[in-house]
Amino acid sequence: MEEIITKEDLRQFGLQLLDKMRIIVQETTHAQTELAQPEWLKSKAVKKLLDISAGSVQNLRVTQKVRFKKVLGSYYYNKEDLQKLFNDEPNK
């Protein structure tokens, strides 16, 4: 038995296809946005972002005000901790 495809069938198929493509594009865009905004920042990026000296960055690390990791001689600082630290400062 042969089935006949109508214009309405094609229209519905096209709408479903567009919906699935939108979902894929949104997921891809979200993933790229997260990759573009890393969770950990190198010392140089922290200095530039906050306009502070290398000593000030070291002081944040030594006083354990922000989480950090040392990887192959480079320090990486947690971006969320830096934001919390400077968002809380005016309240004191």
SSE arrangement:
Layout: H1 7-36, E1 40-42, H2 43-50, H3 54-62, E2 68-71, E3 74-78, H4 79-88
Antiparallel strand pairs: 1-3, 2-3
Can you give keywords for this protein?
92 residues, alpha+beta, 3-stranded antiparallel sheet, 4 helices
Report on this structure.
- With 92 residues, the protein is an alpha+beta fold.
- Helix content is 62%, strand content 13%.
- A three-stranded antiparallel sheet has the order 1-3-2.
- The relative contact order is 0.11.
- The mean pLDDT is 86.
**Major β-sheet strand ordering:** 1-3-2
According to DSSP, the number of beta strands is: 3
Strand content: 5-15%
Mean pLDDT: 86
The level of helicity is 55-70%
The ordered H/E elements are: HEHHEEH
Query: Span from first to last CA?
Result: 79 Å
Biggest sheet overview: 3 strands, antiparallel
In DSSP terms (H or I, runs of 4 or more residues), the helix count works out at 4
The parts where pLDDT drops under 50 for at least 5 residues are: none
Instruction: Determine the structural class based on helices, strands and strand pairing.
Output: alpha+beta
How is this structure best summarized?
The chain has 92 residues and is α+β, with helices and mostly antiparallel strands.
